[in-house]
Amino acid sequence: MKEISTKLLVIGGGPGGYVAAIRAGQLGVPTVLAEGASLGGTCLNIGCIPSKALIHAAHDFEQARLQAAGNSPMGIRVSEPTLDLAETVRWKDGIVKRLTSGVGALLRKAGVQVLAGWATVEDGKTAVVQLEGEAVRVRCEHLLIATGSEPVALPSMPFGGAIWSSTDALSPTELPRRLVVVGAGYIGLELSFAYRKLGTEVTVVEAAPDILPRYDEALTKPVLDSLKKAGVVLHLGCSVAGWDAKNGVHVRNANADEFALPADKVLVAVGRRPRATGFGIDSLQLTMNGRAIAIDAHCATSMRGVWAIGDVTGEPVLAHRAMAQGECVAEQIAGKARRFEPMAIPAVCFTDPEVVITGLTAQEASAAGIETVEASFPFAANGRAMTLGAEGGFVRVLARKSDHVIIGWHAVGRSVSELSAAFGQSIEMGARLEDVAGTIHAHPTLGEAVQEAAMRALGHSLHI
Ligand code: FAD
Ligand code: NAD
């Protein structure tokens, strides 16, 4: 078998793995990256990017439909729009292609050797990569596991046919008339909005009593109202007991009553599981954290020279966390002193309206014994939100009572995902309420709500 030696072998070319490889290459670390499927991983191929493309296309289509129905308060009138779904999917695929080939180009530029094949770990310093027609044994000083995660299936409804994973839902060949979505978390709700806007009848079944169980009620209420307004039917506090093609999804409510929800397709979005077994990795007997590989503040595993980043290390399952960890590991291998100890990893749910949490929630602060002040500023009092026809939602700031250092931002509203940069920066830079309140924010922008929330926490909001 052909053998190569390198300093760093990265297994997995998703946001975690490809960023680690690029950064290592930039720093002169000889690096090999093995990717069995497609560069860009879940995020670029079947996750973040295609879902946001579909969500945006669905939004535009819905706007056109509302305008055609004479429901545009701005006076825009168009004739009945139609959707060429195949064209929409091609457009989405084109974006994916541009980004994934861009990743290939960046890896080449950084001098990374990419092996297109599945890797099997032999020991902490060796893996075999199965390329087309031949296998290559790679010996390395450092092994980085960045194998990501995969969707969890329900035993009573394995994926296939009418039972969709998120991957199937992102490449539909036709729109289902009736879609039942199991799970009202990130994927379930983002795609419920998208399909509803495209014209599908959507019903959501969620085991917890609330949607987006990790967010507080003030943040989820506008999303819940919007789902209801859009005509999405919700069955909260209900579990799924099975499926048959004739009756649809069998659902059990809190009183153990069973009923059936007819469906042409069922999207199961009940979480993702780390891809931490099944490619020789078990033989390393790494310390685990549940199903995830346990890591320390350096992203080091329990075995010297073996590192792990991204979804394979568990929650939060977010691309930007994986990327930041990848950069951190590469720099350590290149000899820099680094730790992965962020104060804030923004979590954004791209529903309509969007929801963002950066830093601590009030509940987390209270559990940590931190006395806080908090204040919200509503978009109803923000000029830019009015011009966008998006007056729902608010920005909320959470700061330490003792010194006004900001420890959390929470927001719900149109395009609040774009405010997450300001949120993260202020927390990481140790900004106080006075710093944000005293910064001139451009007018008219949604960002003024950020400044106003800080002012309000200090007791002197100007526009409310
Ligand atoms: P992955 O992206 O999963 O990449 C792992 C790679 O490793 C894969 O390409 C896989 O083929 C490869 N691999 C696995 N085993 C082997 C092996 N043995 N040999 C070779 N290669 C191997 N996150 C956000 O931050 N924002 C979003 O908006 C967002 N939207 C999402 C929407 C959907 C529908 C889904 C499913 C996920 C979404 N996520 C989002 C989550 C995000 O995709 C992940 O957190 C991110 O991709 C994790 O990166 P990673 O590098 O850890 O793993
Ligand atoms: P999730 O954890 O966000 O939501 C899963 C939901 O399914 C939960 O509300 C849970 O209570 C519910 N559930 C679990 N078992 C159930 C059952 N048997 N019946 C009914 N409901 C059940 O998981 P997800 O939506 O699959 O997404 C996976 C991960 O991908 C997320 O944790 C997130 O980190 C990541 N993601 C992020 C984004 C983003 O950043 N915008 C978008 C999509 C996905």
UniProtKB/TrEMBL annotation:
One of its GO terms (molecular function) is dihydrolipoyl dehydrogenase (NADH) activity. Its cofactor is FAD. The active site is at H443 (proton acceptor). It catalyses: N(6)-[(R)-dihydrolipoyl]-L-lysyl-[protein] + NAD(+) = N(6)-[(R)-lipoyl]-L-lysyl-[protein] + NADH + H(+). InterPro entries: Class-I_Pyr_Nuc-Dis_Oxidored, FAD/NAD-bd_sf, FAD/NAD-binding_dom, FAD/NAD-linked_Rdtase_dimer_sf, Lipoamide_DH, Pyr_nuc-diS_OxRdtase, Pyr_nucl-diS_OxRdtase_dimer, Pyr_OxRdtase_I_AS. Disulfide bonds join C43-C48. It is an enzyme of class 1 (oxidoreductase). The keyword Cell membrane does not apply. Pfam families: Pyr_redox_2, Pyr_redox_dim. Residues 345-454 form the Pyridine nucleotide-disulphide oxidoreductase dimerisation domain. Residues 7-326 form the FAD/NAD(P)-binding domain. Its EC number is 1.8.1.4. Binds 1 FAD per subunit. This is Dihydrolipoyl dehydrogenase.
